[in-house]
Amino acid sequence: MREIHIDDITAAIERLFIDANINLSGNMYTAIKDAIDREASPVGKEVLRELLRNADVAREEKMPICQDTGLAVAFLEIGQDTHITGGDLSEAVSEGVRRAYRNGYLRKSCCHPFTRKNTGDNTPPIVHIKIVPGDRLKVTVLPKGGGSENYGEVRMLTPSQGKEGVRAFILEMVRKGGPNPCPPITVGIGIGGNFEMSALLSKEALMVPPGERSTDPEMADLEREILEEINRTGIGPQGYGGTVTALDVHIKMAPCHLASLPVAVNIQCHAHRMKEAVL
After folding, report:
1. Is 209 helix (H, G, I), strand (E, B) or coil?
2. Is 0.85 surpassed by the pTM of this model?
3. Alpha-carbon torsion 94, 67, 239, 237, what sign?
4. Rounded distance, CA 60 to CA 16, Å?
5. Which of 2, 111, 235, 241 has its CA 20 to 30 A from that of 184?
6. Closest to 89 in 3D by CA, of 128, 48, 134
């Protein structure tokens, strides 16, 4: 049995949220850079260059990539041979978020749904926990901005709507979002499970690296097809028109009830802030 103290978890959470908000990940930087060559619109090309310049300034000046530093979403994969010591795991994660948004001078966006009173420290975080084999703890943080999250949706399709119904729903959500999710976007899609599982699958789909395809050949083909269709909408970088509306599309799928076809769409902005560490 391997022991991990909660102080190490708190420190990792603080470090990762600050890093994610300031330093655009290398694979996303490359994805945007590569998109310049594919973009047919001169304006679209210049927008993509500006996004890279913005990322450069953020990294050099140690400032957030975007003023919306997101709700704090964290995924913990805890090895079943791991023992968390020193206190409460949930509080350890919350404290890490609290420190990150205070010490990193990140905007605190968490508020009461109706009064809109800010919680003051961007807590409570949204935490998803999985128990996995081994004695390691993997922490993935995904600070999620409101502009992109607002254009996510779960829809309970009928089985007869099938793959074409899924495709139509995804394109509807992309067109509905237009420029508001700050394209070029990444689209996470969850298919199957039930109502809540499809939503979680769509969020997990966003964690797949750009350019990586589903291991299911049918889903990999569907990812390619939907990506092409999204890029034919003409929305373009930041909504100025062009041929690169999305950088990638990822699908996670699970079996579902024979009477249902749950589908969730979760859209991510161009920055796609995500960082991870293994303790």
Report:
1. coil
2. yes
3. negative
4. 17
5. 111
6. 128
DSSP character at residue 105: T
Which phi and psi (to 5°) does residue 96 adopt?
A: -60, -40
Cβ–Cβ < 8 Å for 258, 182 = no
Residue 1 has pLDDT above 90, yes or no: no
All residues at 6 or more sequence positions from 8 whose CB lies less than 8 Å from its CB, including other chains: 279
In whole angstroms, give the CA distance from residue 124 to residue 111. 10
Q: Give me the count of residues in the chain.
A: 279
Q: Spell 172-197 as b/e; 16+ CB within 10 A means b.
A: ebbeebeeebbbbbbbbbbbbbeeeb
β-bridge pairing 185-193 and 275-278: unpaired
**Rounded to whole angstroms, how far apart are CA atoms 203 and 143?**
12
CB hemisphere CA count around 151 (13 angstroms): 25
Question: Mind listing the pLDDT tens digit for each residue in 120-168?
Answer: 999 999 999 999 999 999 999 999 999 999 999 999 999 999 999 999 9
